[in-house]
Amino acid sequence: TGCFTYDAGFTATASCKSAITYIDGDAGVLLYRGYPIDQLAEKSSFLEVAYLLINGELPDQKQFAAFSHDVTHHTMMHEALKSFLNGFRHDAHPMAMLCGSVASLSAFYHDTLDLNDPEQRRMAAVRLIAKIPTIAAAAYRYSIGWPIRYPRNNLDYVSRFLHMMFEVPSEPLELNPVVAKALDLLFILHADHEQNASTSTVRLVGSTGANPYACVSAGIAALWGPAHGGANEAVLKMLEEIGTPDKVESAIARAKDKESGFRLMGFGHRVYKNFDPRAKIIREMTHKVLGELGVDDPLLEVAMKLEEAALKDDYFVQRKLYPNVDFYSGIIYKALKIPTEMFTVMFAIGRTAGWVAHWLEQQTDPEAKIGRPRQIYTGADTRDYVAIDRR
Ligand code: CMC
């Protein structure tokens, strides 16, 4: 009983007011704090974008130096967290390890965290942005049986992460600037996307006054699903399964057949009924990065053929299904030698900036309330309990 609006999947419900990110899904527009995503992708850096999302304005040089210093000096993870990682099975998925390890940070920073203190809230955000790459790389190295590397704080954010991922003792890692630049750009594109499932999760958990590390861990869990961030891993697996351009038509036919249970991964979006502006940038970038790295990946041809065929097909045209951010990102990650099971982890590193920006915004929102949706009850009417021997 009661008078509620039924809105399964929240297709028409605004859960909060936010000044962080603007999307016009019909026009294919994405702005972070008013700045178009293509300008940020071309001119900014991930750390600058993280500052922008959190603080609302681009930093001046002094502000950027201070933010960068803070992030750099919180990159270490507590040594005891290693024991936590060591408890996972050798074949644990890095997303499971990331989710668990980030949640465990709430135990390291709990009693001392006063959420009423703006400086402590800011530090929680800084710590999350700083430690996520360290934990992500450690999870990856554990999954392949390599000893973890400590963060090298003389490097920038992305290069430091690449070192922690790939460096082996006594062999200095020759970092290709093309790789570092491409990864930085991918982090920018993934940094925020207003009330997507994972950010809404962070806000829902945050609305109860929960510890911010636990909130972000919940966001990571939501991101992992194939309908959300898990799609980038699923896209690559799908392209590998399709294998060659001549199999594209049958894949399209299968995606159109509702009985098949198969969807074209990396296609469609709740908000974009036009090209996802991030997909446009990534598409261009894929050709550039593969060219610069001299990588000739036959999966790119499969992806291009698939995109072309879907964009011409009535089924996809009528439903306004376009490639989304995850469609091409996997091909770039693969060219950068990021293993497939780390793709969604990459997304999580970038999105952490958005998650903490939303969490911080919520903490000072005078209209924020505990998130508590209602339901339409469809169960049994009142009835009397029957003893087990009489059922
Ligand atoms: N392949 C085939 N059919 C599709 C697809 C697809 N990828 N996406 C949607 N449809 C169909 C769907 O079956 C439905 O058809 P009908 O109207 O005949 O019932 C119609 O299009 C509308 O789809 P919906 O499921 O009602 O739309 P939604 O807004 O609930 O879902 C989505 C959005 C992204 C979950 C969905 O498009 C999808 O599952 N895509 C594949 C997974 C994917 O790429 N996810 C990444 C999303 S973008 C980045 C991110 O969040 O990580």
Topology record:
Layout: E1 21-24, E2 29-32, E3 35-36, H1 37-43, H2 46-55, H3 61-72, H4 80-86, H5 94-108, H6 118-144, H7 157-166, H8 177-190, H9 197-206, H10 212-224, H11 231-242, H12 248-256, H13 277-293, H14 298-312, H15 314-318, H16 325-335, H17 343-363
Antiparallel strand pairs: 1-2, 2-3
Bound molecules: carboxymethyl coenzyme *A.
Report on this model:
Pathway: Carbohydrate metabolism; tricarboxylic acid cycle; isocitrate from oxaloacetate: step 1/2. One of its GO terms (biological process) is tricarboxylic acid cycle. A 3-stranded antiparallel β-sheet has the order 1-2-3. By secondary structure, it is an all-alpha fold. It has helices spanning 37-43, 46-55, 61-72, 80-86, 94-108, 118-144, 157-166, 177-190, 197-206, 212-224, 231-242, 248-256, 277-293, 298-312, 314-318, 325-335, 343-363, and strands spanning 21-24, 29-32, 35-36. The chain has 2 domains: 60-225 and 342-363, Citrate Synthase, domain 1 (Orthogonal Bundle), CATH 1.10.580.10; 231-335, Cytochrome P450-Terp, domain 2 (Cytochrome p450-Terp, domain 2, Orthogonal Bundle). Helix 3 (61-72) packs across helix 6 and helix 13 runs parallel beside helix 16 (325-335). The chain has 17 helices and 3 strands. The longest helix has 27 residues, at 118-144. Strand 2 (29-32) and strand 3 form a beta hairpin. The chain is globular. Bound molecules: carboxymethyl coenzyme *A. Carboxymethyl coenzyme *A (CMC) binds next to helix 16.
